[in-house]
């Protein structure tokens, strides 16, 4: 089954903070784009005549909000985030890929659980979708949010979060953590790190830490620190879910890899009922080689984080620069991310659904 593409028309643009805007979209005529809380959309705007792709998590809830929404925070000198915030207007249509991602929650009215969300900056977006989806459905569950921002002015969804806290009093608690607050701030002035995480969980939330479910989305360092804290309490790995937004940096190929494994190889790609044989040059990823050959494979972040380019290696061996985007089970089953994968042997065959 190939990936679906849609053209979504901008319905409304909301200024959330000085550098963050929410874009809501109409569903396409005669169909609705279905998604799960926590998933992302890949936007494909045309900038300077070139189509570019970036992933944006939906900040809307599939079961509560009529429109689909993404919330974009400007990245200094960032191409797409600034283009969207500066140029896109109500009524414009943007091409998007169908929603994707595994950082999801399925609200279940039978469940009574404790869900703890840790967000930093724009990492609040999928968490907002998750909490808005879970709270009305799971009346016996409790949701706690630790949200790190720079200062009061930069808290995304500040008002909506306060309203939800009132509406779901006793079941939803928000803890804002600021690094550079104003003098009048009476809340936490700290980073979300290992030590502060323990305090939030034990003192502020007083929860059974080992039994809760955790959803983390923010800077890599923050997520690492939170995970370290959760490990102190033996929280099972399957109860910790993470979404990576940021750039992972370029992988530097070692001399050893260069000599021994990564060389020009012919790779077969099975996609939409066709077999394509492509030459993947040393240092090129399988995705780059496929796009060079005009094979329109799905992709988004091109950094091994979003899983839009998922494929399965059914023959031969590949090396991945970055494996964090896949679970251990997926890796064992032969799944790969073509955007960070290089053929290591001859005869590599990749199935892309
Ligand atoms: C699954 C997923 C979901 C995402 N959801 C959201 C979302 O809901 N809201 C949102 O605002 N962003 C989100 N992002 C990040 C988004 O896709 C872009 O990476 C971001 O908008 C920057 O793109 P750009 O074109 O403006 O910057 P680029 O032109 O790509 O980058 C410019 C510079 O900024 C650095 N950079 C790139 N991304 C980041 C970042 N996230 N933080 C800090 N520095 C960065 C780059 O290394 C580069 O040096 C998500 C990313 C992923 C993978
Ligand atoms: S394109 Fe995002 S993981 Fe490959």
From TrEMBL:
This is Ferredoxin--NADP reductase. CDD domains: fer2, PA_degradation_oxidoreductase_like. Residues 3-106 form the FAD-binding FR-type domain. It comes from the Bacteria. Its cofactor is FAD. Keywords: 2Fe-2S, FAD, Flavoprotein, Iron, Iron-sulfur, Metal-binding, Oxidoreductase. Residues 265-353 form the 2Fe-2S ferredoxin-type domain. Signal peptide: none annotated. Transmembrane segments: none annotated.
